[in-house]
Amino acid sequence: MESCVVLRLTNTSADFEARFAELLAGKREASEDVDQIVRDILEDVRKRGDQAVLEYTAKFDRLNAVEMGDLKVSAEQIEAALTEVPAETLDALQLAHDRIYSHHKRQLPADDRYTDPIGVELGSRWTAVEAVGVYVPGGLASYPSSVLMNVVPAKVAGVERIVMVVPSPDDVLNPLVLAAAKIAGVSEIYRIGGAQAVAALAFGTQTIKPVAKIVGPGNAFVAAAKRRVFGTVGIDMIAGPSEVLVIADKYSNPDWIAADLLAQAEHDPVAQSILITDDAELADHVAGAVERQLKTLPREEVARASWQDFGAIILVDSLDNAMPLANRLAPEHLELAVEDPEQLLDKVRNAGAVFMGHHTPEAIGDYVGGSNHVLPTARSARFSSGLSVLEFVKRTSILKCNAENLRALGPAAIALGEAEGLSAHARSVSIRLNM
Ligand SMILES: NC(=O)c1ccc[n+]([C@@H]2O[C@H](COP(=O)([O-])OP(=O)(O)OC[C@H]3O[C@@H](n4cnc5c(N)ncnc54)[C@H](O)[C@@H]3O)[C@@H](O)[C@H]2O)c1
Ligand SMILES: N[C@H](CO)Cc1c[nH]c[nH+]1
Ligand SMILES: [Zn+2]
Predict the structure, then answer these.
(1) 0.90 cut: is pTM over it?
(2) Which architecture characterizes domain 7-28+240-382 according to CATH?
(3) Which of 176, 278, 294, 324 shows its CA 20 to 30 Å from the CA of 204?
């Protein structure tokens, strides 16, 4: 067997449940330390505004700006960035944009209005969130694709003001991030990141007007900050450090599976990549392939740390036992690298996104598939979904009664108002019925 540093579990072994439970508990999410740091930053930005943002940006991104205006990206800077991007990369970005746009167009909900059997009119009206803050990560890597994934659905929904924040550590910002912002149609861009950026968007500062909702992925600090500002603003979900779970059968190519596992591992030292297979030989080959491929990656250190600390290979006696484990892990990405993925798909309950068969690597979904790559992590796929147009709209219900309807429904409303001890409620109906 080739060397393997990763955790290996066999679902038939006596200690499996205990070890799987450890895997579920993880330790990748915001620790108390992170949460405490974030709490202090949020409070500081809320009190001191721009000045606090400038100081944290100097501290964490090593970027010394004199004033917030220096961190606001100008139209000239965006135009200049466009000229720096090779034409073929711009074409790829445009292709990604167009595919994301057409897929998300299908998600727009329709207004509804109908008359029920007693003549009462009911309905729903959808309106866009007015101002949205989009967090684009930029600490360890830059994410032009995340600009599109966040902004395109907001545009489709009709959001008027889209404020993008993206850190530019050491004053470096990938021009492709600005090109993507231009293509997608962002209104304002600030080169700030982490909890201080989330705070600026949520509470507002002297320079940045607050938004109503903050969306987008980020590291543990960003995820913790979004959790904490929820209530002051809306948030989409907790889209933290990336995860993939690959379920592979004996027909899988171990080199392909290893590449897929490392595609998540290279995101973050606390990213997580897990393989579940019923084929011991495949498990060994994948472990070996991971070791070989790791050495070829420019981001070897990040990927190795992730694989070593949070990676796992789980050997199951039958693939039938893979899906219950997958549903408990509730991964951000689930690859079904098997001959008949449709048959497994029926059993998927908890997953941010599913990638079907041997020829749908998750990386296609990251960029050009058309579906959204901002997805719930840390088991939150048990109760939330990936980013979509629905995150940028809200539904208002509509009710319309005429006098006749009120006569029909009023007595029951009066009875319930009185039963709750709320006599003003009862009166507001009875007064119209001359009761
Ligand atoms: N789930 C998804 O949909 C999705 C999509 C893309 C990326 N991601 C994830 O986004 C993350 C990006 O992380 P990143 O770090 O590259 O960029 P980031 O922009 O999320 O974080 C960088 C910021 O973190 C803050 N920070 C760093 N160290 C800090 C410290 N010690 N104290 C306080 N603040 C600190 C800084 O303000 C810095 O600007 C990765 O985990 C990646 O896996 C997730
Ligand atoms: N896999 C990430 C979501 O977890 C998204 C991404 C952006 N660029 C590359 N990958
Ligand atoms: Zn990715």
Answers:
(1) yes
(2) 3-Layer(aba) Sandwich (3.40)
(3) 176
